[in-house]
Amino acid sequence: MNPHSVFCPNPDCPSRGQVGNGNIGIKSQKERRYVCKTCGKSFAETKGTPLFGLKRAHSLFFVIVTLLAYGCPPQAIVAAFGLDERTVFAWQKKAGRHCEQVHQALVEQPRDLEHVQADEIRAKLANKVVIWMAMAIQVTTRLWLGGVLSVHRDQRLIDRLAAHVKACALPRPLLLATDGLASYVSAWRKAFRTPIYTGKPGRPSLLAWPGLVIGQVIKRHHAKRLVEVEARLVQGDESQRQALSLPDQKLHSSYIERINATFRAHLHGLVRRGRALYRQEPTLQTGMYLVGTFYNFCTCHDSLRQHGPGGGRKWVERTPAMAAGLTDHCWSGAELLTYKVAPSPWEPPKKRGRKPKQVCPPAAVAA
Ligand SMILES: [Zn+2]
After folding, report:
1. Which residue, 1, 73, 78, 201, has fewest beta-carbon neighbours within 10 Å?
2. Could you tell me the pTM of the whole model?
3. How many angstroms separate the alpha carbon of residue 50 from the centre of ligand 1?
């Protein structure tokens, strides 16, 4: 137990989220509990992770969740480990919610994205309800930027996805490539604007980001075969597009299609035909974040590897999170599942009501 690497998780504590501040001590080695000297509250070592309150061995939880994140069917886990099916799904949900928090804390931070591709997957639930899953990827680092789910493939779904992408972006030149869905164009234009505050009352005017290039890749099929691919720019010109994509590369959407295939392979409920479909949308939501966060932090990508410091045939393997500068090593499943997201710094509560009247000094009254 190392109290210098732990923060107080109490949301009402003025020292919440601060590491190495000297306010954390060890309450009990046996029970593995810390105590905060600022607020006096004690907390378990596993507080803020999916291991909190877990009755089984932590090593078993890491193995099961890693298997789920790489597409192992829950029925295989039930047969191999003798666990109850409900336990396996509960662990998947727990781990998925944790991964969503890690994603929001680390990935949804502004950075120069350069080139983003977005697309939707059609998924079916067990009750025949169709769910649309819209996701986006940063092309240069292969970083998965998040996804949203909806029963309808409509403007609201794409607006929500655009908000996720904007949360990851700095206002710099950016190429956005999608399929031919018209909602993307209006969603990108609406999302990538910055309010101009002038100090005057009323809603501030919104300034569109300069250097925004929007492209569409439309694929036409006949008799289940691809017959034509049309790539067009809706906003921006060809020289701007070329400056933001790899040299001699046409406008395409192959990176998002590749990650869609990864999600279909790793989420058993996304198979086109199957008998193990998900029953509820939240299970798909947590499964999506579990797969996406393992993809970002724990999976080395062949196309991201670099020559080692000595040159020659030695390569340094990299994950999308390493390529994006979020970490310097490939995380293990245990490292991801024990990562604690620090709460935002505590702020004293604002004083409400009227300000107290100023009492005139006696000398001033006499004068
Ligand atoms: Zn505290």
Report:
1. 201
2. 0.87
3. 21
